[in-house]
Amino acid sequence: METYDLIIAGAGPAGSTLAKALEGSGKRVLLIDKQDFPRDKTCAGWVTPAVMETLNIDLSKYGKGRTLQPIRRFRIGMMGQPAVENDHGRVVSYGIRRCEFDDYLLNLTDTPKQLGTPIKSITRQDGSWQINNTWSAPLLVGAGGHFCPVAKLIGEGPGSHETTVVAKEVEFEMSDEQANNCQAQGDTPELWFCRDLKGYAWVFRKGKYLNVGLGREDNHKLTAHLQDFVETMKTSGRLPADLPSRFKGHAYLLYDHAERPLVDDGLVLIGDAAGLAYSQSGEGIRPAIESALLAADVIRRAPDFSAKYLQTYGDAIAARFGHRDSITEEGFQVPGWIKMPLASTLMRSHWFTRKVVTEKWFLHQDVAPLAANS
Ligand SMILES: Cc1cc2nc3c(=O)[nH]c(=O)nc-3n(C[C@H](O)[C@H](O)[C@H](O)COP(=O)(O)OP(=O)(O)OC[C@H]3O[C@@H](n4cnc5c(N)ncnc54)[C@H](O)[C@@H]3O)c2cc1C
Questions:
Q1: Residue nearest to atom 30 of ligand 1 (CA)
Q2: Which residues partner with 59 through β-bridges?
Q3: In the CATH scheme, what is the code of domain 2-71+93-159+254-326?
Q4: Nearest CA among 272, 277, 327, 267 for reference residue 298
Q5: What is the pLDDT of residues 12-29, one digit of tens each?
Q6: What are phi and psi for residue 224, nearest 5 degrees?
Q7: Which of 96, 41, 101, 98 minimizes the C-alpha distance to 248?
Q8: Which residue has the higher pLDDT, 312 or 344?
Q9: Is the pLDDT score of 279 beyond 50?
């Protein structure tokens, strides 16, 4: 049995950020992921500048040989009515490919890794967690995404009692002909809200790649909504008629809907495992990274790994993202007050789509990036 101070289950943005942040802390850390990297992750691949700033990513270096699509405009509409386009006059976000981005983050850390290694068994003995009967540590951090095996050890774990967002997307490299005919512009992602405001679709061009998807609160008629959207966009010529039909699905939790406890004795959850994605937009990469940094801060100073002490991390999450108990908004990405006939008018307003939808709900421009050493 190899022993460590902590084991991180999952090497996505949350896990790799935590591993990197704990370098130099004196803690012996092992990072485990079931997949070999580079690996893909179902995701639109949109990241806000706060992510790049917090991680101190050198954009010119990152952009060499990788897709890095600057975003300056958004095209926003409600399905069945014309969209409005807002120019922000500067770069307000980026498009990345997860197979490249996650691999880049993972390579930033020298932490020992066990990749291509599914966590199959977790047992507890003498105050230590034993993983696959091979590695042990007194602290286990769940960074394994929505169905993280560590999340199963806390509270009720993942399951049908949770209200999830279910999303489907396809990302593919366009042929020259598809790229020439594609009306979607790289610096102008398109967001199309479902008429019941329970979800939205996106068309996101990143260099040669096109990412099309739709996410909805719960699984209600997701495929039907997606098919309708794709057919309408094909008919209007905004999407290639020969768009691949291999849409991949994935579920995750929005912060306001998640009820997962974040800590227990010797256990901490970060990123999607903790259910932290922003409720209005579904953006999960920024909360994954920020939760990893908040956890690192608590772990670095830990006198012990008791639930009582680790709750310091739970408190830090509540201070950063809000107290879950006090959040009453329902729905996927829009607060209850907007779910009214007024919505279709507001979605035609340049002021509303720019100031509220984009700058507040999607870009969170009012929330400063988390300092990496906080
Ligand atoms: C369709 C869709 C579109 C999205 N678009 C965006 C977007 O544009 N921008 C954005 O910010 N967010 C987006 N999100 C959310 C975002 O993808 C997640 O919030 C983010 O990936 C969370 O990162 P993470 O590190 O917590 O988990 P993940 O990225 O899911 O990483 C978890 C890792 O754990 C590993 N793992 C899982 N189980 C095990 C196991 N048993 N043993 C070992 N390893 C395991 C997995 O292989 C994986 O590498 C989208 C989500 C979906 C579904």
A1: 145
A2: none
A3: 3.50.50.60
A4: 267
A5: 999 999 999 999 999 999
A6: -65, -45
A7: 41
A8: 312
A9: yes
Q: Whose CA is nearest to atom 3 of ligand 1?
A: 43
For the chain, the structural domain boundaries read 2-71+93-159+254-326
**Which residues partner with 166 through β-bridges?**
216, 251
Taking the CA of residue 287 as reference, the ligand 1 atom at the shortest distance is 19
pLDDT of residue 253: 87
Among 109, 147, 136, CA closest to 272: 147
Residues with CB under 6 A from ligand 1: 9-15, 32-35, 41-47, 118-119, 143-145, 148-149, 167, 169, 213, 215, 250, 252, 271-273, 277, 282-286, 288
Q: Specify the amino acid at residue 125.
A: Q
Atom of ligand 1 at shortest range from CA of 148: 38
Q: ∠ CA 323-150-47 to the nearest 5 degrees?
A: 60
* Residue 22, φ and ψ in degrees, nearest 5: -90, 0
| Mutate which of 8, 17, 34, 290 for ligand 1 pocket (most atoms within 8 A of beta carbon) | 34
pTM listed for this prediction: 0.94
- Give the ligand 1 atom nearest the CA of 166: 53
The residue whose CA is least distant from atom 36 of ligand 1 is 144
The atom of ligand 1 lying closest to the CA of 251 is 53
Distance 7 CA to ligand 1 centre (A): 18
CA distance 100 to 104: 6
Q: How many C-beta neighbours within 10 Å does residue 83 have?
A: 18
